[in-house]
Structure formats: structure tokens, C-alpha cells
């Protein structure tokens, strides 16, 4: 079982958030700079008026 799965099972939400953030950071570090901008826009979600 992964460390992320264990943290979810234990409902350690701060640890879960940190693992997810680490995963996003690792992937973003491998992307070209223009793709990082697109990734950040995706993570930002839809404009507030359209939720």
C-alpha cells in the first residue's frame, strides 16, 4: 500500500494534501515552462462566475 493510500485510510488530510502537492510539483518540474502555465490554469479551475 502506498504512503498516500495509508494517509487516506487514516484520514490524515494534511499529509494527503502534502503528498498530492509533492506529486504535482514533481510532474511540473518535468514540463516545459509554457506547459506549467497551462497546468496552473487548469488547477485554478473555472472562472468564479461559472462554478
Characterize the largest beta sheet: strand count, sense, and whether it forms a barrel: none
Q: What is the strand tally?
A: 0
Mean pLDDT: 89
Q: How much of the residues is beta strand, in percent? A: under 5%
Radius of gyration: 14 Å
What's the helix-strand series? HHH
Any idea how many domains?
Answer: 1
Tell me the number of helical segments per DSSP (H or I, 4 or more residues long): 3
Query: CA-to-CA gap between the ends?
Result: 35 Å
Helical content band: over 70%
Shape designation: flat
Give the low-confidence spans: none
Q: Structural class of the secondary elements?
A: mainly alpha
Descriptive overview:
With 51 residues, this protein is mostly helical. It has one domain. The chain is 73% helix and 0% strand. The chain contains three helices and no strands. The N and C termini lie far apart (35 Å).
Question: What is the fold's blueprint, element by element?
Answer:
Blueprint lengths: L2 H7 L3 H18 L2 H12 L7
List keywords for this structure.
single chain; 51 residues; mainly alpha; 3 helices; 73% helix; flat
Please give a quick description of this structure:
With 51 residues, the chain is mainly alpha-helical.
